[in-house]
Amino acid sequence: MTIAGRLAPSPTGLLHLGHARSFLLAWWHARSRGGKVLLRMEDLDAPRVKPGMADAALFDLEWLGLDWDGEVVWQSRRTELYEQALSRLEARDLVYPCICTRREIAEAQSAPHADAARYPGTCRGRFRSIADARAQSGREPALRLHVAPGELEFKDALHGRIVEDVARTVGDFPVATRSGAAAYQLAVVVDDAQQGVTEVVRGDDLLPSTARQALLQELLSLPHPSWLHVPLVQDANGRRLAKRADDVSLAQLRESGLDPGEVVAWAARASAQPGPERGLAGDYLDSFDLALLPLSPVRLASSPFAR
Ligand code: GLU
């Protein structure tokens, strides 16, 4: 089997050190075993995508010495593939229209005895069809997957065996948004299968999404990749880095004159990997050893590059 990893940035803001470390780990993991690396731009979430951020992400990745095989895949250009997957789910009566707004869901979830994270099932069985939902509510419906109760098991290379009953944890979840675009969970699953991705290495903020993705893979008869969820990088106060202005971006570090070799060396050190004091991604390949990767989050010193 050809090993194929992937880098899947969302162009919603500038990449920061946490992204750099996760992308380097994904690349090292695949390339150190002779695998391919594919690049997919996750630009589906139209309101959150910001102009210029996709090019900025590609520039940052190259700056670190990362490369990829073949053309960049853009999710915004693959609507047809997602629609085919949705049709397959619809044909099996596995999706239903949902007109709930975020606010209505939040209100229902905050009711006594309600489960704060689970969709309460308000629209399940409520409408005969999408057209019916539209006509009755005057709203454009989203589509939710009808999730049957049952435990699902998957393995993460770092976190081990995970068992989850999606019907209990999140309940019926969206597979298409109200604007008609594929929801993240569906797009990822369709793309990973279509691109032939065999291993998913990403931040562990996405660990809670994995059971949903595994479930969709089963329903669509798609193969499961292997999963490795990398502990996130936190700031000096233990707060997760975000694409906010106050969290230092790779672009800012570059502008301040920092050498990419220092960023890569930091990421290697923060992953307990041996290697040179500074270097680009390829300089750490020969010595890469996944077994050394710590399970705990990385706490960023207030100025990790102080000289
Ligand atoms: N695009 C997502 C992100 O930047 C990653 C999705 C994935 O790796 O499955 O957080």
What does it look like?
- With 307 residues, the protein is α/β, with parallel strands linked by helices.
- The protein folds into 2 domains: 4-77 and 196-299, Rossmann fold, CATH 3.40.50.620; 79-186, Alpha-Beta Complex (Glutamyl-tRNA Synthetase, domain 3), CATH 3.90.800.
- The protein contains 10 helices and 12 strands.
- The protein has helices at residues 17-31, 53-63, 79-91, 102-109, 130-137, 166-169, 184-194, 207-219, 250-255, 260-269; strands at 4-7, 36-41, 73-74, 95-98, 142-145, 152-156, 160-164, 174-176, 199-203, 226-230, 233-234, 298-299.
- The strands form 5 sheets. It has a 3-stranded parallel β-sheet with strand order 1-2-3, covered by helices on one side. Strands 4-5-8 form a 3-stranded antiparallel β-sheet. A two-stranded antiparallel ribbon has the order 6-7.
- β6 (152-156) and β7 (160-164) form a beta hairpin.
- α1 (17-31) crosses α10 (260-269), α3 crosses α7 and α7 (184-194) crosses α8.
- It binds glutamic acid (GLU).
- Glutamic acid binds next to loops.
- The site of glutamic acid has 7 residues, from loops.
